[in-house]
Amino acid sequence: MDEQALINRYIAVDPYDHGPQDARLKESGTPVWALIGYLEGAGGDVARVAADYELPLEAVQAAVAYYHRHRAPIDAKLLLSAV
Fold first, then answer.
1. Among 13, 61, 2, CA closest to 36
2. pLDDT tens-digit map of 40-71
């Protein structure tokens, strides 16, 4: 499945339009920024993140694809959440 198809299938944008940093997985409601932050701590191991969060591998791949398209606002959210 290509990146856009993964994003369309798994990612829900905030209905109140707070920006891409608040996107979540459709089924679990897990924030993309949280998965990306955990992914960094997991050494980039997408399979580990999927297993630890009990998510389909494709859902985490969708979060990563979404992050690559919206890196700046998601990185800002990660920085703010660490404060």
1. 61
2. 999 999 999 999 999 999 999 999 999 999 99
